Automatic annotation (TrEMBL):
<feature type="transmembrane region" description="Helical">
    <location>
        <begin position="428"/>
        <end position="450"/>
    </location>
</feature>
<feature type="compositionally biased region" description="Low complexity">
    <location>
        <begin position="408"/>
        <end position="419"/>
    </location>
</feature>
<keyword id="KW-0812">Transmembrane</keyword>
<dbReference type="GO" id="GO:0012505">
    <property type="term" value="C:endomembrane system"/>
</dbReference>
<dbReference type="GO" id="GO:0016052">
    <property type="term" value="P:carbohydrate catabolic process"/>
</dbReference>
<comment type="similarity">
    <text>Belongs to the glycosyl hydrolase 76 family.</text>
</comment>
<feature type="compositionally biased region" description="Low complexity">
    <location>
        <begin position="389"/>
        <end position="400"/>
    </location>
</feature>
<dbReference type="Pfam" id="PF03663">
    <property type="entry name" value="Glyco_hydro_76"/>
</dbReference>
<dbReference type="GO" id="GO:0008496">
    <property type="term" value="F:mannan endo-1,6-alpha-mannosidase activity"/>
</dbReference>
<feature type="region of interest" description="Disordered">
    <location>
        <begin position="389"/>
        <end position="419"/>
    </location>
</feature>
<dbReference type="GO" id="GO:0009272">
    <property type="term" value="P:fungal-type cell wall biogenesis"/>
</dbReference>
<keyword id="KW-0378">Hydrolase</keyword>
<keyword id="KW-0472">Membrane</keyword>
<feature type="signal peptide">
    <location>
        <begin position="1"/>
        <end position="19"/>
    </location>
</feature>
<keyword id="KW-0732">Signal</keyword>
<keyword id="KW-0326">Glycosidase</keyword>
<protein>
    <recommendedName>
        <fullName>Mannan endo-1,6-alpha-mannosidase</fullName>
        <ecNumber>3.2.1.101</ecNumber>
    </recommendedName>
</protein>
C-alpha cells in the first residue's frame, strides 16, 4: 500500500515535470507519446549509414535477435498507430538479413545464432505478412520466410534426450547446445500457431500441439502454468532451472491464443486462461510490468531490457486473437504504460517503472522496445486484426532453396500497403478451415535445404 502511494506520487510528479505526459484514454495522446518513443528507438539503428550493415543494430552490444525484435515492434507500431514512416527501413532490414538460404541465417551470424535468434526474425516476417507490409518484387514472400524457419526447426527437433524438444543452440560447438529451453520451444510454438492460423495448413498446428504437449510433459510448464527457463539435455532434462522471464511466458500465452482462435477446444481455452492468469500475476506486481529475475537488483542485461516489451507485444496479439482476454490484459497495459511513460523524457525512457527510476543515462534499445510496446498497445481496441491468406494476405509459402529470385514463393505482386485489411479485429477463423478451407497454393516442388 505504502509503495502504491509512493508510486502514485512519483507518477504525478514525473509526468508533469519530467515524464512524457500520457493520457491513457486519449488516442491522440497515446499516438503522440508512441511516436516520440519510436523515434528514440529508431535512433539506435544506424543500418543505413556508411560502414554499417542494413538490418542490424550495432554489435556489440546487440545480438542478432534484437534487430528482428525491433523491426517487429515497428510493424506493430504501424499496425496500431497507422504511422508508416518506418516501413521502408523495416522492409529493407527484413530483406537484408534473410541470408543465402532465405531462412534468416546470414553467414555473418553463424558463429552465434541460436534457434530463438532465428525465430525472432521469422516472427517479424510473420507480422509483416499479417499486417500486409508490402511484399517486394523478386524477394521471397514474408510468409515463405517464416515457413522456411519453421521447416529448419522441425528438422532440428531432437529426440535424443528429454523425449523431444528443440535445443537452444543450432550448432554443437556453441555454448548452450546442451540446453533445452522454454524460449526456444515457445518461439517455435508461436511461429507454428501463427502459420497455422494464417495458412490453414494443419502441418503447422500439428507441430504447435506437439511442441506445446512436449513442453508441459517435460515440466517446463508446471500445473500452475508457471513457465520455467529450461534444463540440460545432458541430464535428460531432469533438473529444471526454475527462473522465470516475462517474454518466455508471453510467447506461450500468445501461442495459446492463436490456437484458441483457430480451435476453440477446452485444451486451448484452459491453456490460454491458465497461462494468462499466471503471467499477469507473476509479472505485474502492483499492476506494473516487472522483470522478476533481475529488476530488483538492477542486474538486467541488455537482452533482458526488451523482455517486458516483448510480453506486451504478445499480450496485444492475444487480445486480437481472443478478445475476451482484453478485460484482464488492458488494465495492466494501461497502468504499465503510464508508469513507463513517466520515466521517459524527450531523449530516452527508463526501465525500472515501478520505482519511477529514470535510468539516468543508462539506456539502450531494449528500454525503448519495452516502453513503446506498452504505450502503443493501448490502441489495440482501434486496430484491425491480422489478416490470413484467405482474408487478403499473400498465399504462397513456397520454398527457400537459395536459388535466388524467381524460386517458388517469390512474390510477383505488391500488397496494398495498408493494415486496414478485411479481417475484423479478433475475428475467429472457424475450425472448419482445416477440413474445408483453402489449401495453400504451393508453387513448384518442395526441396528444403537443411543446414
Ligand atoms: C556481413 O559482415 C560484413 C562485414 O562486417 C558486412 O559488410 C556485410 O554487410 C554483412 N552482411 C550481412 C548480411 O549482414
Ligand atoms: C521423434 O520421436 C517421435 C515419437 O516419439 C516420432 O514420431 C518422430 O518421428 C521422431 N522424430 C525424429 C526427428 O526422429
Ligand atoms: C529421458 O526422459 C524421458 C522422459 O522425459 C524418458 O522417457 C526417457 O526414457 C529418459 N531417457 C533416459 C536415457 O533416461
Ligand atoms: C482442436 O483441438 C483438439 C484438442 O487438441 C483436437 O482434438 C482437435 O482435433 C482439434 N480440431 C481441429 C479441427 O484441429
Ligand atoms: C547524463 O549525461 C549528461 C551529459 O552527457 C550529464 O550532464 C548528466 O549529468 C548525466 N546524468 C546522469 C543522471 O548521470
Ligand atoms: C488466397 O486464397 C484464398 C482462398 O483460395 C483466396 O480467396 C484469396 O484471394 C487468395 N489470396 C491471394 C492474395 O491470392
Ligand atoms: C503445409 O506446410 C508444410 C510445411 O511447410 C508443407 O510441407 C506442406 O506441403 C504444406 N501443405 C500444403 C497442403 O500446402
Amino acid at each position: 500500500m505504502a509503495r502504491l502511494t509512493r508510486l502514485a506520487a512519483i507518477a504525478a510528479l514525473t509526468s508533469s515535470v519530467y515524464g512524457l505526459d500520457l493520457k491513457a484514454d486519449s488516442s491522440d495522446s497515446i499516438k503522440s507519446v508512441a511516436s516520440t518513443i519510436a523515434q528514440q528507438m529508431v535512433s539506435y539503428y544506424h543500418g543505413n549509414q556508411r560502414g554499417k550493415t542494413v538490418g542490424l543494430l550495432d554489435s556489440p552490444p546487440y545480438y542478432f535477435w534484437e534487430s528482428g525484435a525491433m523491426f517487429d515492434t515497428l510493424i506493430q507500431y504501424w499496425h496500431l498507430t497507422g504511422d508508416n514512416q518506418y516501413n521502408d527501413i523495416v522492409s529493407q532490414g527484413l530483406q537484408a538479413q534473410i541470408g543465402p538460404n532465405e531462412n534468416y541465417m546470414p553467414t555473418n551470424q553463424s558463429a552465434s545464432i541460436g534457434n530463438d535468434d532465428q525465430a525472432f526474425w521469422a516472427l517479424a516476417a510473420m507480422s509483416a505478412a499479417e499486417a500486409k507490409l508490402p511484399e517486394s518484387q523478386g524477394n521471397p514472400t514474408w510468409i515463405s520466410l517464416a515457413d522456411a524457419v519453421f521447416n529448419d526447426q522441425v528438422a532440428r527437433w531432437d529426440n535424443s534426450s528429454c523425449n523431444g524438444g528443440l535445443r537452444w543452440q543450432i550448432f554443437a560447438l556453441n555454448t548452450g547446445y546442451s540446453y533445452k529451453n522454454s524460449i526456444t520451444n515457445g518461439m517455435f510454438f508461436q511461429l507454428a500457431t501463427r502459420l497455422a492460423r494464417y495458412t490453414g495448413n494443419s502441418t503447422y498446428s500439428d507441430w504447435a500441439t506437439k511442441t506445446f504437449d512436449w513442453t508441459t510433459a517435460a515440466g517446463f510448464i508446471d500445473a500452475k502454468w508457471n513457465v520455467f527457463d529450461g534444463a540440460q539435455a545432458s541430464t535428460n532434462c531432469s533438473e529444471m532451472d526454475h527462473v522465470q522471464f516475462s517474454y518466455v511466458a508471453g510467447t506461450f500465452v500468445t501461442g495459446a491464443a492463436h490456437m484458441y482462435n483457430i480451435n476453440r477446444s477446452n485444451k486451448w481455452k484452459s491453456a490460454l486462461d491458465g497461462l494468462l492468469r499466471q503471467t499477469l500475476s507473476v509479472f505485474f506486481p502492483d499492476g506494473i510490468a516487472y522483470e522478476v529475475p533481475c529488476e530488483k537488483r538492477a542486474t538486467c542485461t541488455t537482452d533482458m531490457h526488451a523482455m517486458k516489451g516483448l510480453l506486451a507485444h504478445w499480450l496485444v496479439d492475444t487480445i486480437q486473437m481472443a478478445p475476451y482476454t482484453s478485460d484482464a490484459i488492458l488494465p495492466k497495459l494501461k497502468s504499465t504504460a503510464s508508469a513507463a511513460a513517466a520515466t521517459c523524457n524527450e531523449g530516452a525512457c527508463g526501465f525500472e517503472w515501478s520505482t519511477g527510476d529514470k535510468g539516468g543515462n543508462k539506456t539502450d534499445v531494449g528500454y525503448e522496445i519495452s516502453a513503446l510496446s506498452y504505450v502503443q498497445g493501448l490502441l489495440v481496441g482501434e486496430a484491425v486484426g491480422p489478416v490470413t491468406a484467405s482474408s487478403g494476405g499473400t498465399n504462397a509459402t513456397g520454398t527457400s532453396t537459395g536459388s535466388g529470385p524467381g524460386t517458388s514463393g517469390t512474390t510477383t505482386t505488391s500488397g496494398t500497403g495498408t493494415p486496414s485489411a478485411t479481417a475484423n479485429a479478433g475475428s475467429i477463423v472457424g475450425a472448419a478451415i482445416y477440413t474445408t478451407g483453402p489449401v495453400v497454393a504451393l508453387l513448384g516442388s518442395v526441396a528444403w535445404l537443411i543446414l
